[in-house]
Amino acid sequence: MLVALxxxxxxxGSPGPSGxxxxxxxxxxxxxxxxxxxxxxxxxxxxxxxxxxxxxxxxTYQVTPADLRAVATADLFVMNGLGLxxxxxxxxxxxxxxxxxLKLAVDLPGVVLLPGDTPDTQNPHLWMDVSxxxxxxxxxxxxxxxxxxxxxxxxxxxxxAYAKRLxxxxxxxxxxxxxxxxxxxxxVLFHDALPYFARAYGLTIVGVAVEAPGQDPSAGxxxxxIDRIKATGVKAIFxxxxxxxxxxxxxARETGARVVANLYDDTLxxxxxxxxxxxxxxxxxxxxxxxx
Length: 292
Ligand SMILES: [Zn+2]
Fold this sequence. Notes:
Elements: E1 2-3, E2 25-29, H1 32-42, E3 46-50, H2 65-72, E4 76-79, H3 87-95, E5 101-103, H4 130-147, H5 152-177, E6 186-189, H6 195-201, E7 204-208, H7 219-232, E8 236-240, H8 246-255, E9 258-263, H9 276-291
Parallel strand pairs: 2-3, 2-4, 4-5, 6-7, 6-8, 8-9
Antiparallel strand pairs: 1-5
Helix pairs in contact: 1-4, 2-3, 4-5, 5-9
The structure holds zinc ion (ZN).
């Protein structure tokens, strides 16, 4: 769904000075995950910039002057919504750009949303279920085709090929998770990024260390999580490369569970985690390695 911003008196969404990107659709995304999807779908018809650098937390990200420059000249914005990256909308308003904003997770057909960290919110991490990743890519293709109808045939062909690869990836995830004994398909995570993944692939998340990034748990909450880990015999606590590990290390010491601190979800990382497909494969390999 494309949402045109009605506010602000800035320049209409015409391409800005773009150097070697002349004639391409200028796309600005929040996460490098969505940027990778846009590149796969748009091929050489798009020039994509993602705002959140490797290693920083998308939930609490502070925009920079360079981000404002990228935002000012974009033809299309691609974000997740549902509270993951809502800071982008304020940035777009300050830049006065009226280009369309695609919110990938909002009103995604057929998806039942899971609860977020506070009442009346929804968990935003839909793309960690690869079938939702396919829906994200399809939405990006539709938005790109609307941004430049002359590129529509190219984009449709790339989008079809990409959806086919993601569908194979989804099947691969199921096969790999099936190799974990059923009783061991449970884990604890630093922040609540995998509930859609767990729902899709038949795993149980026994608990999360922080309710939301930037919010430290109380001593009582930590003690309750430790009790739950001991009671359920969880083998591993997973954390993500962009978050500090002191808390999960402490929980691991008190429970004997193992820490695996290099999952990726909100953003891409170092080689080999440089694409959405590689990120999913990487995480599945870490989960299977620690739980099997
Ligand atoms: Zn997250």
